[in-house]
Each structure stands twice: as structure tokens, then as C-alpha cells.
Amino acid sequence: MSPAESRTGLVIVASTRASRGEYEDLSGPLAVDFLRELGFETPAPVVVADADIPATLDQLFARPEDLPDVLLTSGGTGVTPDDLTVDALLPHLERLLPGVVQAFFLRGLDNTPLAVVSRAVAGTHGRTFCMTLPGSQGGVRDGCEVLRPLLPHLTELLHRAPDSTPAPSAPSEPPAELLAARISETPLEEFLPEARALTATDAAGAVAIFEGIVRNHDGGQSVNSLTYSAHPSAEDELRRVCLSVLSHFPGVRAWVAHRVGPLTIGECAFLVVVASAHRREAFAALAELTDRVKADVPIWKEQHMGDGSTQWVGL
Known about the structure:
The chain has 315 residues and is α/β, with parallel strands linked by helices. Helices cover 31% and strands 28% of the residues. A hairpin with a 2-residue loop joins strand 6 and strand 7.
């Protein structure tokens, strides 16, 4: 499938009350609007009762020719007996993508500690990417923002024929390059001009920058400051993780650093600069680098709360 061909999306909402017309579902339209913004031809959401979601998905996957490029569901991800969506979708997935789910939960935790009470699954079936989202508007927004930089890259990968020959430019595309992977006590703001200058080249059409900033709250509590600590192996592990991620992004150049020591509100704790010929690869590599570093590198933070208490995160 060439990039010029249209991609399709489908949103299925599991809500017994909405299917009966007892209230207007607002989460499904958010997901539809999101897919349309990314260029996916997406009809209005399909609303079904919670009890009907297993049969609805079974019927959909029984017709491979009708499957969209992206399938998102809303609702039915809780822990009550009538929350069936995750269990109904899981048997149809051929390859799971736990990193996408992890990124979704991490984003949700920025808004509420209850985010992890919900369930979620993401994966692929043939050329279709699938993910379950909560029935709340906030949950759908979080899921959409996590998927925004990923879906173009994912759909492109899923539509590559296994036996297809590389594009003419592929053999000459340079390998990815990791320019820096450092743990630093020096304020990262001082490195940003250097990092951008080293990462960008005349061949780069996109430079994407992530600055992880110390915020003044966490889990509904105020935070005065925090201190980052790292295992002695953290810098080696940071380099290993970055190289692992970049192995999937030929032509991408990256500069990565994480701060340790005491930080105040508003300071940069995590800096990632990525350059690529095209924005899709830059966004996708940036998202994967930030998620993998936060998940896999042994760095912890001690939060000094507004009430005088201390909290450790990441131990």
C-alpha cells in the first residue's frame, strides 16, 4: 500500500446506556476526530451495549477485508463484570505492543493516580493496529496524544509487504547515530544549543526536542523540589537503551541526557534531541526514546512535597 492510498479508521464504543439512548457518548467522537485529523477516513463511532462487544469484535475480525488500518475502542476497560472490551479484543491480537500501553498509563498518571485502575491492551492483527481506551473523555484524550506521533509510523510498518524490495533510497540511508547519552549534574539547559547544533545536519528536515521539566505537583499534591539519583550503571544502561531504540530508525541522529542531583521547579530533568530527514521518523523516535529511558534506565527521584514529607518514585 503506497503512502498516497487512503488509510481507514474505526471507533467502537462499548456503553450500554449510550446504546439505549439514555445519554450521549462523547468519548467516541473525540477518537473519531483524532483519527480524521491524522488523515484516516473514519466513520461516526459504532455504539454497542457492553454485553454485545465480544460478538461485535468477533464479527468484525471474521471479515478481514473490512478491517480498518486503525481500530480504537472506548469503554469496557474497567474491573467490573460487565467490562468486557479488553478480554474480547485480546484473542484477536497477533502481536502485543505493551510499550504503547505503558506510555498510555504513564500519561494518565500525570492526571490522576486512578489511571492504572483501568485496563488496556494494544497490538496488531494483520495490517490493523488496535487499542482499547477508557470510556472517559480524559482517558481517550490521553490515548490519542500517546498515539499521535506513533500511528503514522505504525501503519507504514504494517503495510510493508514482507517480500518487498527496499525503496531506492534505502540502501544509501545512513545508520542511526547516537551523539550523546549522558547522566549529568550540570543543568541541561546549558547543553541545549550544543545538542541541537550537533544533532541537526543539512539533510535533516525535522528536529524534535523533548524537555522533561520539573513540575510543582504530583498525584494531586504540591511538590517543592526533587532530587534525582542514578545507579552507577545508569549511563551505560542509558546508552544501551538508546542504541536499541535507534536500531529501528535508520538515518535518525539523537542526543540524550538525564539530570541527577537537586532540581528546582521549572528546571529541565530530561533532554532528548532527535533529527531526521522526515518529521514522522523524528516524532516516532523521540517518543520511543523518552518512553524507554523512563521505563528502563535505573534513575530515581526523591520528591520534596509541599507538606514537608518526602516521596521516592521509581524505586
